[in-house]
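Feature request disguised as a bug report, sorry. It would help if multi-protein outputs had a clear separator. Right now it looks like this:
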Amino acid sequence: MILLLNVKITDVRMGYPYARGSWMPNPNRFDVFKYTLAGYAVMSPIVNKFAFYIILGDEFKHRQQELDDYIRSIFPADKLDLNWRRNNYGRDWKATCSQLFSDPNEVVWFAGNDDHVFIDRNLDVVSAGIKQLKADPDPNAIVYYSHWPEQIRMSVHFNGELTEDKNFIKYHWENFDGIHLMKASRFVSYWERDYGDTPMFRPDYLGAHYNFKCPSTFYAPTRELVRHYEGYSHVGNNMANTVPPLFVPPGFFDGEMKIRIGYPDHLADWTNFNPASEWLYNFSKGGADYRWASEDTPLCWLDKIVTIDVASDYDSNLMYRARDAAYLATTRIPMKCFDITFTHEKAAPVEWFANNLLAP
């Protein structure tokens, strides 16, 4: 797999006004990007090349050497292709594609955003996605790796079916978002026409503005692989206490993370897990940071944790049931996405997620 990143790092935000609790940590985009990169770094065992195209906004240009040093410290030199420029136009992409892709079946993790963080606990599902795409005869097949609550809703809407390995829901759709795992042949096809001087740093608007057609097979993972750092308040008001925005955990960059599990209160400078918590911290200051069990700890955290403190009255069976209930709740959130309104009705079948539930 090639991980292809094409981004501008700036605190000047465009698009949706995402909601975050005013007391929530909210670092500048430079540190958010470093956190995103840390998530990508743990994918190294299944990545052949990290092709990074990066530019910095004026407010961060003086930190380019700092970022360069950081990137080179966490990615293997023999896999890293670091470019301090961005592909802005179709002609840029044509040149980049000719350099990167010799095999049309090469699988490409395209990231057109700087803030979609890999939070899965291992690489099993991503590896299964690579295998699934390579075996799929559709040259345009997609694994939609982020915006998981939306993807589960869309897979139900389009009558999706569980794959044999139980890692994905397969359905048919058309979409060009910049958060896709796909074959090189599809990505190359985006840039075959001449877009002139139209900015094209992401393919998101190919369909809406250029009438580009590419209906294809889509795969929605049966567990959350990646979460948008800012969360998903753009699709509904029900996210704050279910799928909140992320934050850089205290101690992450220093390798001094401390995890508390099962406590009813929230302690600053720790990352607080409590599957049974009524509230999440983004919704209420006293809530847990995540309704996760220890098994849900993101892979990119594991070498950063120095202390894990489990409450003395922690009941694993009870907490596993609470964690599973919270997990399933994230698949049933009322929302409006892609001009479709979803209610609590027509929920995804529990059987889709059986491989990812913890309760006995």
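(second protein starts here, but nothing in the output says so)
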Amino acid sequence: MSHPVHIRQIAALAAQNGWHTNSMDIKTAFLYGDVEEEIYITPPKGLEHLITPGKVMKLKKAVYGLSQSGRVFYKQLIGQIQGFKSDRISVKSATEDNCIHIIRRGESMIIVATVVDDMFQVTNDPEFLTEFNDYIKERYVCTDNGPVKWFLGIHF
């Protein structure tokens, strides 16, 4: 999760340079990640009828409430962001906050700060940002919230 101080610094940088802001939300984020460990649960209340009494269920996907879910989704999302890299596009993590990625193509730049399933984005090239967001939308069900008005309880 990006630190709120870093998000405010990115917002200040965008305001200072007249860059565009954007916010995206990935729906049912944790369900995109596959769990690596073997995890068994008893059926949730109301679903007991789905399995034989005395049996348990094996999780294949990370679910909300599972302690590993955030880490599993983070690794999945970072892999997708890194996958946007090409011979013309570079993707680097910030050294202070590995939930912030800087994506460059020539003079065009996008800064993406992730907070669980939300992305705070600033760019000097809205067309490049649209290209990146289309790439993300091919991989996840997302809501593009447009220019940032509220993020993490902060009014911009």
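Even a blank line would do. Unrelated, but nice: The beta strands are 20-26, 40-41, 57-58, 90-93, 100-105, 108-115, 118-123, 142-146, 150-151, 154-155.
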